[in-house]
Amino acid sequence: MTVRLVEPTRPSRRFHATATPMVFDLGLSENPFPPLPSVMSAVTSALAQANRYPEFLPEELPRVIADHLGVSPDDVVVGAGATGVAMQVMRALGDGELLTSTPTFDGYPIMAEMAGMPLVPVPLDSGGDQDLTAMRRAVNRRTGLVVLCRPHNPTGTVLDAAAVRSFLAAIPHRVPVLLDEAYVEFLDPADRLDIRALLHRHPNLLILRTFSKAYGLAGLRIGYCVGRGKLIERIRNQQLPFGTPTASIAAVRAAYAAGAELRDRVDSINRERIRLRTSLRACGIEVPDSHANFLYLPGPGVATALRRAGIKAKAYPDGSARITVGDPAAGHAVHAALVGLR
Ligand code: PMP
After folding, report:
1. Is 82 touching ligand 1 by the criterion CB < 6 Å?
2. Aminotransferase class I/classII large domain location, by residue (predicted)?
3. Do the beta carbons of residue 154 and residue 296 sit within 8 Å?
């Protein structure tokens, strides 16, 4: 499998209108399922108090998340999605370079610019994985933050757990490392990292997660970061007063309570991803082995073929595309649009 990358990802902040009406919107790696009825009802009840301000600084939501994870509430900072929390991280740390892979989640180059952190992009290796050797070599005294994604966006590939542990052991403690686990719930439990053990060993580590993906609550903007000591305290100091809506607490409590139902949905998204990847590989498209709710379809020509078929995807400069998976009807449309391309 090779991932052809002609140019690094450019942040796409503007919507480009196209002539073909869009039939499926697969551009933002969303969860195809609407919120569970129990989550809807919890959020609706909470909205009855929407005339009231939420907590000045969030205490309840960090506590609910910390209890679920088995960590101290002092180690959890919440924010407006993983994006909001990552922005807090950069504002707290922002006087150095941001070292990360390219391509990656579009938010990182955008936020680095906003935070005034020069971006140091390290190309993915020929297998579409983050190149940990090159990233380790690129760390120097100017490095202010290192970002790793596991699974990675856009390829969905998963760094080997032992390789992540050696990477962390090789990074000096003065350099914070943000391990972005936005898609962790799609991983087989055997592939997940023991974040408590890692955090214990590495005071410079921050784990970033979100309720936007597996929990299907992207519109509510709930994310969090887990870390330790002075580092997490600096990030908490960037907390926006009254910035955590009361409804988000109700949504998280209800989502945790519905763990088994959500697990079924994640399993079905995973099955659909495997089915679609197999059928696209049979068409000659070298789709990397994704472990998230999207697939990366290497170009050239893929993004254009999808657009012509009315499928909105995240497009890359070399003609590659990333599509959200989970909806079988959309998967069939993707297959139909690409069959015969190679
Ligand atoms: N990290 C990664 C790797 C992502 O792909 C995304 C969303 N596409 C985010 C963070 C941000 O997610 P959110 O702000 O919705 O929580």
Report:
1. yes
2. 23-306
3. yes
